[in-house]
Structures are given as C-alpha cells and as structure tokens.
Amino acid sequence: MARGPHTNTPIDRSPNVAPVRTPKTAEIVAQSLRRQIVTGELKDGDFLPNEPELMTQFGVSRPSLREAIRVLESERLVEVRRGSRTGPRVRVPGPEIVARPAALLLELSGATVADVMVARTAIEPLSARLLAESGNTSAYDELEAILVEEIPTAWKTGHLAEVSARFHRRLVELSGNAALGIVAGMLHELAERHTAAAIKRRRTVSEAEYQMLTRSYRRLIGLLRAGEGEKAEAHWRRHMERTRELSPRGLANEKVRDITD
User: Fold this and answer.
1) Which InterPro entries does the entry link to (predicted)?
2) Rounded to whole angstroms, how far apart are CA atoms 187 and 40?
3) What secondary structure letter does DSSP report for 9?
C-alpha cells in the first residue's frame, strides 16, 4: 500500500472504496423543507415563504434555492404555478403518487391478476379486524353510506366495479394502519380494472349475485360495529376467496398488463 508524501499514513487506493459524496446545497435545502412537510410544520395548501426569506433562512443563493424547489416539485410535494406571485404551494400526496409506478412495475414483472388478488386477500381481512377493534363509528358510517347510497345506483348504472373497489379501498384506509392504506391505494386502480373485467366477461351482475354481494357487505359492517375483530377478519377472508372463485375462467391467470390496456 502506498504512503502519502511527508507522512507514514497509508493511502488506500483500493478500487472498491467509494469516494465520500458531499450533498449539494440544493439537496440539503430540499431535505430540510421535505422534513417540514413530513412533520406537518408545513401543511397541505400552505405557501412556502418567498425567495428572499428562504435564501436568508438557509443562507443560499437564488439558483440553489430554485433547484431545491424543482426537486420538491418533481416529488410532487410542492406545486409551482408559473407566473403566480404567491410562490410554491405545499401539496401532500396520497397513494396515487405511487399507484401508477407500482402498476407499471407489476406489468413489467409479469404479475398476474391472481397475484394482485392474493395480495389483497392478505391485507383486507387484517384491515377489517383492525377497523373492528378501533371502535371508529364514523368509519363504519362511511362504509354503510357507500353500501346504502352508492352501490344500488352503481349496480343499475353499470358502475359497480368502481364503487365496489372504493369500498374495499376505504375499508383498508379506515383501519388506521397507514402502511396498509398506502398499499391499498397502490392496488386500487388494478382492483377496479379487475372487477370491471370480471363483470364485462360475465356480461352482467345478476340480481342474485348483487344481493349476495350486499349481504356480505352488510354482514361485515355489522361485525365492525359489534367490535368482533376476529369474526370480521374471517368473514372478509371468505368474501375475498369467494370473489376469486367467482372470477371468469382464465381471468386470474392473465397478466396485469392485459387488463390495464
């Protein structure tokens, strides 16, 4: 190993040692603002302070500050309206920010409709249990409103796939587990497309099938209100498994990319 000039300290010139990278000024500013958004110091809809204030606050130049704002804009954490005098506005994203990339990854990986259904069967019953144990009356009321006020109209107008998918998504989001809610949001579009494809291939949802669906939803809501977490989980797992079994022959084996075209 070589030694540095005027010293006996060895110089490690190994090709496997990566050089230490110093973050750019813009990255440091973006990280600080991002942290303020994550912690809620900057809330959805808030405007960032004007450029002179931010430049003074962080001790940076205008180009560095603008580069930091562009980073946050690319992450969809702020919205910049060109020509506006109000400046960048905070936009706290929801699951939709990762939904499309996640769907694309599933398409590229060759994932099947069955893969998506198995994932949903893993998270939704657990979410039902958590929601039942939470005692969240307003959440139960919201699900019941979807069942009573939206699903009957959706069945008659041919929009049952969209409303059913939203019922499933809200079940998970209302469970109180943020991680499960984000995953449900990522899978929401695929779940909706899967339901729509299943209905389309069967031409229609019969009266008997519709009644069976609504009875299952009503049973779930009753268990949630009763605080029966274990029973709610078991019921919703049976519901999800029965839904898979009723899918048109061959649909489960189709690639995700084939139902997203």
Assistant:
1) GntR_C, TF_FadR/GntR_C, Tscrpt_reg_HTH_GntR, WH-like_DNA-bd_sf, WH_DNA-bd_sf
2) 26
3) P
In this structure, whether the domain defined by 96-259 belongs to CATH 1.20.120.530 is answered with yes
Q: According to DSSP H, which parts of 158-253 are helical?
A: 160-173, 178-201, 207-225, 229-246
Spans of all domains in the chain: 25-90, 96-259
113/232 Cα distance (integer angstroms): 25
Element (H, E) at 126: helix 113-134
d(CA 166, CA 75): 26
Q: What is the largest CA-CA distance in the chain?
A: 90
pLDDT tens track for 125-176:
999 999 999 999 999 999 999 999 999 999 999 888 889 989 999 999 999 9
> Could you report the per-residue pLDDT of 5-21, keeping only the tens digit for each?
555 555 555 556 556 55
Quote the Cα angle for 94-95-99, to 5°.
140
d(CA 130, CA 141): 16
SS (H, E, C) 26-83: HHHHHHHHHHHHHCCCCCCCCECCCHHHHHHHHCCCHHHHHHHHHHHHHCCCEECCCC
Q: Which of 236, 228, 235, 210 is nearest to 147 (CA)?
A: 210
- Please name which of 225, 213, 129, 208 lies closest in space to residue 167, comparing C-alpha atoms: 213
For the chain, how many residues are written?
261
Nearest by Cα to 244 from 143, 125, 132, 131: 125
**Sequence-distant (≥ 6) Cβ neighbours of residue 32 within 8 angstroms:** 58
Distance, in Å, from the CA atom of 228 to the CA atom of 234, rounded to the nearest integer, reads 10
CA distances from 95 to 58, 100, 180, 181 (A): 31, 9, 11, 8
